[in-house]
Predict the structure.
Amino acid sequence: MAVPTDRRKAKAPPVTIERIERAMDEVALAIHMAGAKGAVYLPIYERLERELQALREKQATMALVRARLERLAAQ
């Protein structure tokens, strides 16, 4: 079955720290609401933690790059 053209052109919103943290909140709530069976959601939560850490590291590295470029431009 072919995907309608308008759906193929739709872009997903960017991944942000805020979106990841919101997703973590939702998964935490699902874990809590599921009680003893909530552990089934732990891999999702752990993945979100890794993605959050990776995004924070990427942003920190980009800040270092920008600072370096500013120093170069000031020379």
